[in-house]
Amino acid sequence: MNTRKGKIAVLLSGRGSNFEAIYKNSTSADSPYEIALVVSDKRKAKGLTTADEFGIPTNFVRPRDFSSKTAYEKKLIELFEKFKIDLICLAGFMRIISPTLINKYPARIINIHPSLLPLFPGLEAQRQALEAGAEVSGCTVHFVDEGVDSGPIIMQARVRIEKDDSEESLSTRILSEEHRIYSEVIRLFFQNKLKIEGRRVKILT
Ligand code: GRF
Second label for 152, Cα 20 to 30 Å away, from 87, 121, 131, 200? Predict the structure, then answer.
C-alpha cells in the first residue's frame, strides 16, 4: 500500500494563523497530508518564525531580488519541485500570482478569503462587509485562477454580522471558521473528493 502523504506548500506574508491551524490538523495520525514547505515574501512574517519553530522547511523569497513576477514565480516553482509539492495553499499571501505559476499547477493552488465570495473580493473584506451593511459574511476556500479571489469556490462558511460588530470582532469570528474549513478542504483534496465541473466544484461523498 502506498502510504505517501500528500505534500503541501503554504505561502504566507504575515501572522500565519491559518498555517498554524493547517499544521495542527496535519499532525493527526490519519492526516492524508503534511506541510513540506512554508514560503514567505516577507522576512519578518510571524508565520515564517512559527514554521521554523515547528521544524518545517522555510524559505524567504524576496521579490526585489527578481527582475520580474515571472522570474519570482520560477523560483517558487523550483522550490515546489525540489520539495515534491502536490498542493499549494495561499494563506494570507499578499501577492497576486500569474499564469506562470497557475499553469504549472492547474487546479492545485487554493486560497482562503474572509468573505462569502463573489462578494467582497480584494483587501479588507471584513470592513467591506460591515460598510455594506451586510447581515451575513464568512469565508471561502477557492481554487486560484488569474483574477483576484475569483476562482471556483470549493467551500464556504457563514458568519452572522451582529449590530455592534467591529472589524476586529467580525474578523475574529470569521477567522475561526477559516481555520476549520481550510483544513477540511485540504483533506478532501487529498482524498480525491474535489471535482471541478466548469466554474463549480463538486464535493464527492
Ligand atoms: C486571513 O483572513 C485570510 O482569509 C486572508 O488573510 C488572512 C491571513 O491570516 N487571506 P493569517 O496570516 O492566516 O493569520
Answer: 131
